[in-house]
Design a protein that fits this description.
This protein is mainly alpha-helical and about 150 residues long. It contains four helices and two strands. It has a two-stranded antiparallel sheet with strand order 1-2. The N and C termini lie far apart (about 35 Å).
């Protein structure tokens, strides 16, 4: 749950992710993970998704090992909840989940002047992180499904 302040969960990694609140989503698109995540994945030996990323991230912080999709995440008029995903999402004529990166970035830009407490800002940033990872990953999975099924 992104509202927890427990030090035993990996939320602290998200709290320290990148140099600004926007880094949790910067560069994310409907089927592309955020720049910071791609940089870290490339550093770990992955990063097939974007060959344009060449920066060496030696010493970069970790990434969570799991994105817990069973929770409900809401940010900038986006919602991700496993029970809200269509049961027939993976099909040849399936359409990707909506993702408005500009709206998310606008909302992240407003966090600093929002008047929210520090812990409330952390929760919002965590929600944005999950939206900017889960939706593009699900959409990438749909693309892969279509290729595998020769749609």
């Amino acid at each position: 749950d992104p509202r927890t302040m427990s030090p035993t969960e990996s939320w602290v990694w998200i709290d320290e992710y990148g140099e600004s609140a926007q880094s949790v989503c910067e560069g994310a698109r409907i089927n592309r993970l955020p720049d910071e995540t791609l940089l870290r994945l490339k550093n770990y030996g992955y990063g097939y998704q974007d060959d344009a990323i060449t920066t060496n991230m030696a010493g970069a912080g970790p990434l969570p090992t799991t994105l817990h999709y069973c929770q409900r995440y809401e940010f900038a008029n986006h919602t991700f909840a496993k029970r809200k995903i269509r049961h027939d999402f993976f099909r040849c004529d399936g359409t990707p989940m909506d993702f408005d990166a500009d709206a998310i970035m606008r909302e992240l830009n407003l966090l600093d002047v929002s008047g929210l407490s520090g812990s409330q800002k952390k929760v919002q940033r965590r929600m944005a992180y999950m939206i900017c990872h889960l939706i593009p990953l699900i959409n990438l999975a749909l693309e892969e499904y279509k290729m595998d099924m020769n749609c």
